[in-house]
Amino acid sequence: MTNEQVFTEVQALIIEQLDADAATITMTTNFTTDLALDSLDVFEVIDQLEDKYDIEIDTDQPLSTVGDLVTYVVKTANA
């Protein structure tokens, strides 16, 4: 699995959840400051990723940007 594959999935989940424009979601997009997601919104994205990739995401990790989450998912899923 690659960063690009996971990024596409994360982007799709955020678009679905927020009805956001895909162009506004990049690897450097911050969940709270750029997308105004609250902790429940972020948890829902994380929960869907855990189900899709059959992994467990440690929410104590500093996952503030889309890139942070993508990197964490790729590293965990490929371990």
From TrEMBL:
Molecular function terms, GO-annotated: acyl binding; acyl carrier activity
Statement: the UniProt record of this protein carries the keyword Metal-binding: no
Mod. after translation: 4'-phosphopantetheine is transferred from CoA to a specific serine of apo-ACP by AcpS. This modification is essential for activity because fatty acids are bound in thioester linkage to the sulfhydryl of the prosthetic group.
Annotated GO biological process: lipid A biosynthetic process
Domain Carrier: 4-77
Keywords, in A-Z order: Cytoplasm, Fatty acid biosynthesis, Fatty acid metabolism, Lipid biosynthesis, Lipid metabolism, Phosphopantetheine, Phosphoprotein
Compartment list: Cytoplasm
Pathway: Lipid metabolism; fatty acid biosynthesis
InterPro entries registered for this protein in UniProt: ACP, ACP-like_sf, PP-bd_ACP
GO CC, any one term: cytosol
Modification type O-(pantetheine 4'-phosphoryl)serine: residues: 39
A Pfam family matched in the record: PP-binding
Purpose: Carrier of the growing fatty acid chain in fatty acid biosynthesis.
Family indicated by similarity: Belongs to the acyl carrier protein (ACP) family.
Name by which UniProt lists this protein: Acyl carrier protein
Organism (species): Lactiplantibacillus fabifermentans DSM 21115
Gene for this chain: acpP
